Amino acid sequence: MKRILRIPRLFSALCCFLAAVCAWISAAPTAAADDETVPTYRVGYIAVPGFFTKDKAGTFRGSGYEYLEQLATYADCRFEYVDLTGVRTSTSLLNGTVDLLVGSTSSLLDPRFLRSEHSIGRTPLQISLAKGVGSAPPELLRIGYYVNAYPPAFLRRELDRFYPEGGYTLLPYDDFRTIDDDLLAGRLDGVANDGLHPQRGAKPAGNLRMVTHYILYRPDEAALKARLDDAANDMLTVTPYLQYMLALRQERRGAPLFLTSEEKAWLAAHPHIRAFASPSQAPYAYFEFGVHKGVVQDIIDRIEQDLGIQFDIVETANNEELFTRLDRGEADVMCDFFYDYNWAHQHNMVITNPYLTVNYVLVHRRGRYVPDDPIIAAPRSRNFTHQYIERTYPERNIRYYDTDEDCLRAVESGYADIAAIKSISAQALIYKNGLFLLEAENAVVYTQGTSIAVSSRVDPIFVRILNKEIAHLDPTLIQSDINRETRAMTEHAPVTALIYRSPVETFALFLVFFLLVLAGVLFFFHVRRSHVAEISRLAYLDPVTKLRNERWFEKELPLAIARHAKERAAGRLYLAAICVRQLDYYRATYSRPLLAKTFVGEIHRASDALPWFDIFAVAGDRARLFMLWALPQGLTPQQAAEKLAHSASVVPFGDVMTRIRYHVSALRIPKAGTLVIPDLMNTVSTTLATARAQNQPFVLFDDSMRDQLAWASKIEAIAPRALAEQEFEVFYQPKYDLQTGALVGAEALVRWQSKELGFLPPGRFIDVFERNGFAVRLDYYMLGHVARFLERRIRRGLPVVPVSVNQSALHISEGGYLQKMKETSEAYGLPDGLIDLEITETAFVDFKTKEARENSRHIIDELKSYGYATSMDDFCTGYSSIAMLQNLPMGTMKIDRSILLAAEHDDRSARILENVIKLGSDLGMKILCEGIETEAQERLLKELGCTYGQGYLYAKPMNEEDFEAFMETHLNENGSARS
Question: pTM of this prediction?
Answer without folding.
Answer: 0.44
